[in-house]
Automatic annotation (TrEMBL):
<keyword id="KW-0560">Oxidoreductase</keyword>
<dbReference type="InterPro" id="IPR023210">
    <property type="entry name" value="NADP_OxRdtase_dom"/>
</dbReference>
<dbReference type="GO" id="GO:0016491">
    <property type="term" value="F:oxidoreductase activity"/>
</dbReference>
<dbReference type="InterPro" id="IPR036812">
    <property type="entry name" value="NAD(P)_OxRdtase_dom_sf"/>
</dbReference>
<dbReference type="Pfam" id="PF00248">
    <property type="entry name" value="Aldo_ket_red"/>
</dbReference>
<protein>
    <recommendedName>
        <fullName>NADP-dependent oxidoreductase domain-containing protein</fullName>
    </recommendedName>
</protein>
<dbReference type="InterPro" id="IPR050523">
    <property type="entry name" value="AKR_Detox_Biosynth"/>
</dbReference>
<feature type="domain" description="NADP-dependent oxidoreductase">
    <location>
        <begin position="43"/>
        <end position="334"/>
    </location>
</feature>
<dbReference type="InterPro" id="IPR020471">
    <property type="entry name" value="AKR"/>
</dbReference>
<dbReference type="InterPro" id="IPR018170">
    <property type="entry name" value="Aldo/ket_reductase_CS"/>
</dbReference>
Length: 347
């Protein structure tokens, strides 16, 4: 399962460099433009753990999350991009972000960019009404008038991509969203969505896929290059392998069983973790920063996770430096390719 090296500079549309992915060293001041509509930091924060019992969330954890929110948006961190979904904690993640946005308003602070997602269950047959109804629910929980980035959570809809695209376009035309994206789409599905939205004069902003040193499939399949060619930014979820790439877990202390993405036994990751640890020491950064910097070097925007201020500070140590081509090649050599899934992960 060892990876084959590919160049650290993604192929595709060279005009995308510096616009939808970082060219050079990522910094807290770096901003990328998605869908021609929103300006975001080179790293986002995924908020599945904010309010979801899968991550053992309890209401008393809110104060830690609020402190994390503030730490991430500090000038020294520069994070202005948060990703959630209607199904995270059955809407509780959106509720939490809504409370935090209200806090920003009360304190006179800028509002960050918020992305959320619509889960197109197969039984949701009526479009655009099912999508617009879900969107309005998200808007209410978030306490906003417009969603910055609205994404289709996965390619599980029974209606055609063109029908779903028409619904997304309607959301844009109604002024309910600024930009639109997809998640877990294959190359072919993404290309179809891009073309269908283009008929409405709308740029597909993003495709969110699992991408990390434990799953290089979006790169080796050509997904990342094709996205760049079309001006579609790649959002990389689970860039830390649900904690497996941080150094926190070992064969003797494995991650909780519910963390299903990149669910490899820790014993299989020993060679990879050894290389990450060595590179981290050479750069004087945590292992998590190496894993995140790798995804940035590959032309994606990672969605790091943080539930306390310390984790937030660890994440932003991926800024201010960049892996060398030699280091990327060495990591490629011990990384895992992964695969696509039949039901969910097509991309």
């Amino acid at each position: 399962m060892a990876a084959t090296h590919t160049d650290s500079v993604p192929v595709g549309n060279p005009q995308a460099a510096g616009i939808i992915y970082v060219q050079g060293v990522p910094t807290p001041e770096t901003r990328l433009t998605l869908g021609g509509a929103i300006s975001v930091s080179p790293m986002a924060i995924g908020t599945w753990a904010w309010g979801d019992p899968v991550w053992n969330y309890k209401p008393e954890m809110f104060d830690d999350i609020a402190a994390t929110w503030d730490t991430l948006q500090a000038e020294s961190s520069g994070i202005n991009f948060f990703d959630t979904a209607e199904v995270y904690g059955k809407g509780e993640s959106e509720n939490i972000i809504g409370r935090l946005l209200k806090k920003n308003r009360q304190e006179g602070k800028p509002l960050p960019i918020i992305a959320t997602k619509f889960l197109p269950y197969p039984w949701k047959w009526s479009y655009p009404s099912s999508l617009l109804g879900a969107l309005k629910g998200s808007i209410e929980r978030l306490g906003v008038d417009v969603v910055d980035l609205y994404q289709i959570h996965g390619p599980i809809h029974l209606r055609s991509i063109e029908v779903v695209a028409d619904a997304l376009a309607e959301a844009v035309k109604l002024g309910l969203v600024k930009s639109v994206g997809v998640s877990n789409y294959s190359i072919d599905q993404m290309v179809r969505m891009h073309a269908a939205l283009a008929k409405h004069g709308i740029q597909l902003a993003t495709n969110q896929v699992e991408f990390s040193l434990l799953r290089r499939y979006p790169e080796t399949s050509g997904m990342i290059a094709k996205c760049h060619e079309l001006g579609v930014a790649v959002l990389a979820y689970s860039p830390l392998g649900m904690g497996r790439l941080t150094g926190k877990y070992t064969a003797e202390n494995p991650p909780p069983s519910g963390r299903r993405f990149s669910n490899y036994p820790m014993t299989e990751l020993t060679p990879l973790l050894a290389v990450i640890e060595r590179i981290a020491k050479e750069h004087n950064v945590p292992m998590s920063a190496v894993a995140l910097n790798y995804t940035i070097a590959k032309g994606t925007i990672p969605l790091g996770g943080a539930r306390n201020p310390d984790q937030a500070r660890q994440n932003v140590k991926a800024f201010g430096w960049r892996l060398s081509d030699k280091e990327v090649e060495e990591l490629d050599g011990v990384a895992l390719i992964g695969d696509k899934g039949m039901f969910w992960q097509h991309g």
